[in-house]
Amino acid sequence: MLDLGRSFLASVARDPNAVALVDGDLQLTYAEWLPRVAALADGLHRVGLKKGDRLVTALQNTADAATLHWACQFTGVVIVPINWRVTPDELDFVLDDAEGTALVFDASSEDAVKGSLRAAGMPWISVEANCKDAIDIAELYQAQADAMPVAGPDDLSLMFYTSGTTAKPKGVPRRHQAERAAALAHVAQNLMPQGERTLGVMPLYHTMGVRSLLAVMLLGGRFVCLPRFDVKTALRLIEDHAISSLYLVPTLYHDMLEHEDFVTTDISSVRRLGFAGASMTDGLLRRLNVAFKPDLFVNHYGSSEVYTFSINQKASLKQGSAGRAGLNQHLRIVTVGSGDPRAEVSVGQEGEIIATLAGDEAFEGYWRRPESDAKALRDGWYFTGDLGRVDSDGDLFVTGRVDDMIISGGENVSPVEVESCLSLLPSVSECAVVGLPDERWGKVVTAFVRRSGPLTADEIDSHCRNSGLAGYKRPRRIIFVNDLPKSPVGKLLRRVLAAGKYNPETTDASAVEK
């Protein structure tokens, strides 16, 4: 079985003259990139890092970040990529929890590094940060080194940290074989051809970003770096590099469509669209399908722990469906709260989605979190915490998180279903549905709506009544807002709205009881 380092060598041998990496004016072929990867791998050794050590990185998507990822795959150093927006306290937690040996950062995360107590005393490597206390990464490239990997398929490749909500983030260690299997599944499930070109905008601390990087390498393709998402720059790169596939969260697609440059950009090279990280509303699906006319429109449902749960390769034809289990996966829907993988529910009935841990893409457990393992890992199955149902065709619909479910007057209401209904209104730019405390109902279904044109609460209510949405699911309160809270990778943060933290459009008429 190939590890990732040897997979890289195979791609270099297969397509030495293909452009592999683009970052601004820098373009490297595979033959040109390999010596830089090898030199950086040697540089990590010279800093004192050895196989099995944890290297914590807080970097934007640049050529150096991509090269560092591959250098770690060659050396057996376990890369621990984290959000470059990290705070000093968050950085201290990861450095302690992961037992970090060294730290790599750029200007975007320099303040957090300097404010970290745990970072003091360990080697620092800076990427264009001009920090006198750090080794400049340029110094680590100064070597002529052998490119032979020392890591094997059973060695750890990286450790993601899940975004914490009510608790501290959890480490998700993943082996070379699982990472490679996930990349191969991504290639197959997205029907990606040799020489695929993709926009490297999803961050390399996120499974979507890493998957894009690995997948194009396996195909001798091109990874075009975009350090920080900017719609104007993204559209220019799509046109200039004839990007053939996009793999983004729904928020970024939405922002592209809304930008004034979209209608004048040549997007004809984009033949494959993929999205993950959050559900996509029916309205946005329709708009994207009309705008891009893609050959393939893929809804990928998965996680950091188990890359692929399910795939819908015809997302625009069966809107809202997450399709069927991926190539390396087996799914079940079981009774919520049962903790029993045998407690399968009937077709059409809602329950918790669980995924087999026997699949090639799966992790083996959280980093030193036995209590989390006990909660999520049962009898060879991963309990996702997601709600879903399977229709009569055998297709999966993800209806929300167990924790997001609204219980109003004793009835269960899925926020995703209501949001998809609201998204079909032309003047609804974005929306989010949560349950807010109510003396009578326990929780009242509340819609937070960002308008793109004239729209009243009465019009929203009328639309919901006429759409076939069950009466108990209709929003009883509608709040017009200027924006919606999102995570750094574009996930909607319903918990922030539920906590009362939002920016109302007005203070006098934004909240309307229905």
TrEMBL record:
Gene3D superfamilies: 3.30.300.30, N-terminal domain of ligase-like (3.40.50.12780). The keyword Isomerase does not apply. Residues 417-491 form the AMP-binding enzyme C-terminal domain. SUPFAM superfamilies: Acetyl-CoA synthetase-like. It comes from the Bacteria. Keywords: Ligase. Residues 10-367 form the AMP-dependent synthetase/ligase domain. Pfam families: AMP-binding (PF00501), AMP-binding_C (PF13193). Transmembrane segments: none annotated. GO terms for biological process: fatty acid metabolic process. GO terms for molecular function: medium-chain fatty acid-CoA ligase activity. PANTHER family: ACYL-COA SYNTHETASE (PTHR43201), MEDIUM-CHAIN ACYL-COA LIGASE ACSF2, MITOCHONDRIAL (PTHR43201:SF5). Belongs to the ATP-dependent AMP-binding enzyme family. This is Acetyl-CoA synthase-like protein. It comes from Planktomarina temperata RCA23. The lineage of its organism: Bacteria, Pseudomonadati, Pseudomonadota, Alphaproteobacteria, Rhodobacterales.
